[in-house]
Each structure stands twice: as structure tokens, then as C-alpha cells.
Write a structure and sequence with these properties.
By secondary structure, the chain is of the alpha/beta class. It has helices spanning 15-21, 30-40, 53-79, 95-103, 121-124, 130-133, 155-158, 164-183, 197-209, 219-224, 228-242, 257-270, 293-312; strands at residues 82-89, 111-114, 141-146, 186-194, 249-253, 290-292. The chain is globular, with a radius of gyration of 22 Å. The protein starts with 14 loop residues before the first helix and ends with a helix.
């Protein structure tokens, strides 16, 4: 059957196995990389490749955290735990990229991403939470929602895809729905990714010119800049209603994608104890990048007060 082994089912202290499986090409020793480059060059000429120091540091830290995610998945599998992570936020805030780095080396048999299309005609007749409930994690499973039932708290309201009454009912029901999930043994982590208006516009422009990213553009994205303030109000209402003690929000300021990814993964790892976990000092998050929902609500209220004062002067 060969010599390769399942990382999740193997002792994670085996450094050689992990080295083989975590980004084998871009994380090799520099001397090995140089030899590989020479082999690939038909003329045998050396080709200099320049990489920023911060990129190398990011890659190294990401590798360490991805190894920890494997340990966490192994623990969840052994103990029959259920981990549900929700990723919400502004368009082009980096949710998808973060999810990709989290799941990159997890065993797909025990980890899956849920990214639902718009509801079908049949689903529109169902209880709002029904189609999401079908995808919730079972024992020993990790599930990541790339957008979730919080569509109704944001894009559906702003774009007119739901009524004011439906939105009001959602804000009333969502805390109780999440309470039932938590009481049933589900570990629930909710992330809201924040990006500045200028950075969002820059990323939209890049998507238009990059063939590999054009699929990310949607009719909703085109209106995000014009409806910026409406999305802000919807976000504030959503946080007020759903930032509870049993299901709090974690807000990530994601103008710097790499920092956002690193801090998000650190927070995930810090929430669950598992065997052979790295030191707590390695999982400390940056308070300028990652804050709790209560602090974000206060920040938004202060910002709105300043705008009100400026308007009255």
C-alpha cells in the first residue's frame, strides 16, 4: 500500500511526515529549492527568485498553525465533538481565503465547507433555518459555513430579498436557534470579517482583471460600495441581536489578509483544548486585528456619534 500515512490518524509528533505533507514545494529548505529550480530550467541556468521576508515569516507561522489544526481535528474525531464555524462579513473581506487556509490540510472526511446558493423555490416555502439545519455537523465533524443564516441579517435586508417583518423575525429567532445548537453539544464559533471601503474597492478592481478571481464577482458585489452605509446599519442591528454570551461574535479587521488568517486560526485553536497543544504564548492574537463583538459594537456606536456630531456642526 506504500509508505504514506494518514496524518490525522498518526502520531503528530512525527515531524518528517508533517514536513512531507505541509506545502512540500514552497516550504522546502532554500538549498533544495535552488536545486529544484535548476532542474526545471532547460538551460541549467540559475534563476533568482525574490521573496519578501514577511511572506516567509507568514508561511512559517501558517505551517505551524496548520499542524495544530490537524491535532485539533484528531481530537475532535476521537472525542466525537461537533465544531461549527460561521464566516460572515463584507464582500471581498477575505472569508474564502481564510477558510481555504484552515481546511487546506485537514482530512476532508471529517471537515467540509458549506456555501449554499440562493434558495430554490421549494426552500423559499420552508422555515428559514431549515436548509441550513440540514448541513450542521454530526459527531467527529468540523463544518465551516461560508456565509450562513446571517444572510437575512445583511444582504437579504439591504438588497430587498426579504421584508422588514421577515428581518425582524429573524433577529428575534436567531439567538434561540443558536442556543439550541450550543445546548445540543455543538461548539459554535462566529467570525465577522471587516474591511475598509477603500480596500474593498481595490479588491473588486483586482477581481475584474484577474481571470482566476472573476468567478467571485456577483451582481450583489457591484452594489456593495453604493450601499456601504446600509450594510453598516444592518451589521449593527445584527450584532446587537445575536452577540450573545453563549454564541458571541469575533470580529476580524481584514485589510491585511495574511494577518487576518493567522489571527483567525489562532483564535480557533485557543477555544478548544487538545493533546500536545503548543504554548498559549504562540496563540496570542493581535488586538488591532481581532476583537470581540462587544468591542465592535462600542466602536460602531462611537463612530456613529462622531458622524452625528460632525453633521450637526
Amino acid at each position: 500500500m506504500g509508505t504514506k500515512r494518514d496524518i490525522v490518524g498518526t502520531n503528530l509528533d512525527d515531524g518528517e511526515v508533517l514536513e512531507e505533507n505541509i506545502h512540500p514545494d514552497r516550504r522546502k529548505d532554500e538549498s533544495v529549492k535552488q536545486i529544484d529550480e535548476e532542474k526545471r530550467n532547460k538551460n541549467g541556468k540559475k534563476v533568482p527568485v525574490w521573496v519578501k521576508k514577511e511572506v516567509l515569516e507568514y508561511e512559517k507561522e501558517l505551517r505551524t498553525l496548520q499542524i495544530e489544526l490537524l491535532k485539533l481535528q484528531n481530537h475532535i474525531k476521537e472525542k466525537g465533538l461537533k465544531l461549527l464555524m460561521i464566516f460572515e462579513g463584507r464582500d471581498a473581506a477575505g472569508k474564502g481565503g481564510t477558510i481555504k487556509r484552515i481546511t487546506e490540510h485537514l482530512n476532508p472526511r471529517g471537515a467540509r465547507v458549506v456555501a449554499l446558493e440562493k434558495p430554490s423555490d421549494t426552500e423559499k416555502t420552508q422555515w428559514y433555518f431549515q436548509r441550513y439545519t440540514h448541513h450542521l455537523p454530526s459527531a467527529s465533524e468540523i463544518v465551516l459555513f461560508d456565509r450562513s443564516w446571517y444572510n437575512r441579517g445583511g444582504v437579504e435586508l439591504v438588497m430587498g430579498f426579504c421584508t422588514q417583518e421577515e428581518h425582524k423575525e429573524f433577529l428575534h429567532e436567531v439567538p434561540e436557534y443558536e442556543r439550541m445548537l450550543v445546548n445540543s453539544g455543538t461548539i459554535l464559533l462566529k467570525f465577522y470579517f471587516v474591511v475598509s471601503k477603500d480596500e474593498q474597492q481595490r479588491r473588486f478592481k483586482k477581481r475584474k482583471t484577474d481571470p482566476l478571481k472573476q468567478y467571485k464577482l456577483s451582481p450583489v458585489d457591484h452594489k456593495s460600495q453604493k450601499l456601504w452605509d446600509k450594510y453598516t446599519i444592518a451589521k449593527y442591528s445584527m450584532l446587537l441581536a445575536s452577540n450573545t454570551e453563549f454564541a458571541p461574535w469575533t470580529v476580524i479587521h481584514a485589510d491585511n489578509k495574511k494577518s487576518a488568517r493567522i489571527n483567525c486560526i489562532k483564535h480557533i485553536l485557543s477555544q478548544i483544548d487538545y493533546p500536545k497543544k503548543i504554548k498559549k504564548s504562540k496563540l496570542i492574537t493581535d488586538p488591532d486585528i481581532l476583537i470581540n463583538g462587544d468591542q465592535e459594537i462600542k466602536n460602531m456606536e462611537n463612530h456613529m456619534s462622531l458622524k452625528k456630531n460632525d453633521a450637526s456642526e
